Amino acid sequence: MQTYSLLREFADSWMLLALTLVFVGVIFWAYRPGSRSAHDAAAASIFRNDTRPKAAPTETEPR
Q: Transmembrane residues, as ranges (predicted)?
């Protein structure tokens, strides 16, 4: 039972601090200055090889 108590104390103090710092670091990494172009490129990557569909002719356009 002593090992459990030691690990529980470690998890409640230092591991909580370490995981909080990792979380904050990931948030800062995602919102760092200059990362917008990388995020935009990743968001548009699924559409990279698609072609745009042609619009249907309207009533005012000649056929």
A: 14-31
Q: Looking at residue 63, what is its pLDDT?
A: 59
- The model's pTM: 0.56
Residue 4 has which token pair? 């459990």
Range of weakest confidence among 10-24, 29-43, 44-58: 44-58
DSSP assignment, residue 12? I
Q: What is the DSSP secondary-structure string of 16-43?
A: HHHHHHHHHHHHHHHT-TT-HHHHHHHH
User: What does DSSP assign to residue 41?
Assistant: H
Domain ranges of the chain: 1-32
- Sorted by sequence, the CB contacts under 8 Å of residue 6 that are 6+ apart come out as none
